Amino acid sequence: MWNVLLSFSGLVALIQLLFLPFFPESPPYLLLQKGDKAGCLKAMKQLWGEGNYHIEFDDMMKEKAVTKGTKIMNVLEVLKEPSVYPQLSTMLLLLLSLQLCGLSATASLQESTIPYVSLGVAISELMSIIFCSSIIDHFGRRILLWGGYLLMALILVLLETSLLL
């Protein structure tokens, strides 16, 4: 019954894929990143219901004014910034510690290939983190979430189909 359990995660991804287009963008994203005041207020009303959101809107406008002169850095600029080294070190430590959890050893691999599989997984995770963080500002989180869920659902459907055949 493991294949049913595996397809359950595909079902959850499919449900999220279907309902994600009906949710509005984040109000701070619309105001701070896109500069869309009307869209921000519309998203606030859609998420929180009818009401007066001028206090929250004013707070976001103050945040926008404070961050107006702040330069948005790309991934390489962040890696060169010494003030983020503690956070980057923590993330890197967590990423590397995942490689020591034993998942590669339980995958029925030959013992000589386990270090290479672990290294390959770590490199692919690191590359996906760098790639996704560099394109997230361009496309936005909603498009990336939608694309990720679509890709996960398609892969799981293909996997389940190949298992049935």
TrEMBL record:
Pfam family name, one: Sugar_tr
Q: Which UniProt keywords apply?
A: Membrane, Sugar transport, Transmembrane, Transmembrane helix, Transport
What are the recorded GO MF terms, alphabetically?
D-glucose transmembrane transporter activity
- Quote a single Gene Ontology cellular component term: plasma membrane
Task: Give the originating organism.
Answer: Eudyptula minor (Little blue penguin)
Predominant localisation class: membrane
Q: Where is the Major facilitator superfamily (MFS) profile domain?
A: 1-165
Q: Where, by residue number, does the polypeptide cross the bilayer?
A: 6-24, 113-136, 143-164
Tell me where in or outside the cell this protein is found. Answer: Membrane
Q: What is a biological process (GO) this protein takes part in?
A: D-glucose import
InterPro entries recorded? GLUT (IPR045263), MFS_dom (IPR020846), MFS_sugar_transport-like (IPR005828), MFS_trans_sf (IPR036259)
**How does the record say this protein sits in the membrane?**
Multi-pass membrane protein
Q: Has keyword Metal-binding?
A: no
Instruction: Kindly provide the name given to this protein in its UniProt entry.
Output: Solute carrier family 2, facilitated glucose transporter member 9
Stored PANTHER family: MAJOR FACILITATOR SUPERFAMILY (MFS) PROFILE DOMAIN-CONTAINING PROTEIN (PTHR23503:SF54), SOLUTE CARRIER FAMILY 2 (PTHR23503)
